[in-house]
Design brief:
With 88 residues, the protein is mainly α. The chain has one domain. The chain starts with 8 loop residues before the first helix and ends in a 10-residue tail after the last helix. The mean pLDDT is 89.
Length: 88
Amino acid sequence: MENDEIMTGDMLVETVENQLAEGNPIKVKETLMRLMMTGTPREEAIQMIACALSVEVFDVAKNEGSFDLKRYSENLNALPEMPWEFED
């Protein structure tokens, strides 16, 4: 992705839906199920997962690095909390 290309919220949600359909990474489906089992509506859970994904997308664009699956998984584990919101 070029730096001038920004993923919209809809694109992030679509990516999460694709990850769910493909079962990759499996952590996305596990997170969705965990959130829904604790009473979070599916649409809201997908939005939360998309927020965790946005952290990785932003980092890749900002630092021209590669996607960090470990950090993505850690952010998924933290949901429904979003500790990255307060990071610089």
